[in-house]
Specification:
This protein is mainly β. Helix content is 4%, strand content 48%. The strands form 3 sheets. Strands 2-3-4-9 form a 4-stranded antiparallel β-sheet. Strand 2 and strand 3 form a beta hairpin. The protein is globular, with a radius of gyration of 13 Å. The two termini are 20 Å apart.
Length: 112
Amino acid sequence: MSSTLRAGKRVRVCLQSDVEENQIVQVHVDGIGVLAIYRVEGQFFASDDICSHGQASLSEDGYLEGFNVVCSWHSGSFDIRSGQPTKPPCMEALTTYPVILDGDEVLVALEI
């Protein structure tokens, strides 16, 4: 989970049971678009789903290596905890969102 909680709206995106360990799930959020939800070491993370380099869907065309999501289009990667690029050709960070767990529900905090 993200340690920084931005003020704003909390939106339910899925259930914990919908995301298996070391997997990525695509969710659609009204007013925001498509997000990728990740589960690594029992923790949940959220980011924009589209790679900032090649416009690939990270949930459909990416895979996890630890806390890095690798875009299969050009093998660039991002740290899912911060959104920062970790391997070229990715240079621009992904937008990440704080994740809140409420029972089995996974929520993301969105700035309004």
